[in-house]
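Same chain as my last thread, 262 residues:
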Amino acid sequence: MMRSLYTAASGMLAQQLNTDAISHNLANVNTTGFKKSRIEFQDLFYQTMREAGTPITQGASIPVPLQIGLGVRPVAEQKMFVQGNLISTEHMFDLAIEGEGFYQIRMPNGEIGYSRDGSFKIDRDGSLVTANGYFVEPPITVPEDALRFNVTEDGAVTVNIPGQVDPQEIGQITLVRFVNPAGLNRIGNNLYVETAASGAPIEGQPLLDGFGSVRQNFLEQSNVKIVEEMVSLIVAQRAYEVNSKAIQTSDDMLGVANNLKR
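reply #2:
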């Protein structure tokens, strides 16, 4: 059986996965804080038919090897943590991170998730929560009689209380970062969780020790660029078509060999 059939088939499977990743990026073009990803590939094993350096005559040897590659395989999904554009929302509970860092979110199972999505709300008890009702960590509770909710760029949270001239501080937003954020595991709902590859979370205050700032009344858009993704989609489609042509050509060659007569 011709090697090219399996080699080209591996190329088609790789481009299918590539298209899946591109489609996921495009589907989340309007998802707050979404970070795009790309699939990375490696070539497969090589069958060495003649090794370089093999002696052929006295004092002479093969200068280059004869190797046939056996295809391609996907090896990683690289998350691209490039800053997305910030858009003004005029909503006082919308908080965008400009720079490095993740919000800490308490999930229903008690574990901490990490997110760049700052489209927060308050629940019936005044607690700051995500759209799914997950609590922000450290907890922040807005008093019932608060007139104005304010967040400074360094994460200090204050409210204006009737009868008080000075704002009252009710909490501090902290951020975390990771040595290898690309190693985080996505679990949906705009959340990541820690893995052995990401390293342990490093907590800090916005604007200090390399952390980004918190921008109130702003949201971070997805960092997906539609034009780039569409170009990547076209390239993936053409690569898929070329690999399918290689399979058709290999099949035609096998057909010729099968129909040979004495």
